[in-house]
Amino acid sequence: MTGHLILYTQAPIAEDVPWEEHLEDRAHTLLTTLNRPAPSHEEREDAPSLLVGFLYLGEGRMRLYVRHQDDPDVVGCDVRLAEAGPAVIAGIFPRSQERELFEEPGDDPHCAAVVKLIH
Question: Is 1 inside a domain boundary?
């Protein structure tokens, strides 16, 4: 009879494993939070605000494109991914409606105005 020896070792506890959050992780969290649950076609038509696109700008920044029900223009919201925590995420839709924060979009053909949410 041939036997096999199985050796069990204790895996390191999660606290012992260094974890580094990457900017891509922040981008994923930001985009999925703003688009969850994924709206149906009917919900998209009736939604007061929607994330309609995004663009990586480099240097850890992203431009989120937002459309509001009462305004046909798309607004770009610039965020720094390292700062994209709950407060920034919660402020994207309301702050993108504050016209006093609007700046010219420069050469960006995808939006009519830009709001910089970068601190």
Answer: no
- Is there a domain that residue 84 lies in? yes
Q: What is the mean pLDDT of residues 8-34?
A: 66
* Cα–Cα distance measured from residue 88 to residue 109, given in angstroms and rounded to the nearest whole number: 24
Amino acid at 41: H
Residues 38-97 have pLDDT tens digits of 667 777 777 788 889 999 998 889 999 999 988 889 999 999 988 888 888 889 999 999
Q: Number of folded domains in the chain?
A: 1
- Tokens of residue 33, six digits: 């939070």
Query: Would residue 10 count as lying in a domain?
Result: no
> Could you list the residue range(s) of the whole structural domain that residue 27 is in?
22-116
Cβ-proximal residues to 69 (8 Å cutoff; 6+ apart), any chain: 46, 47, 48, 49
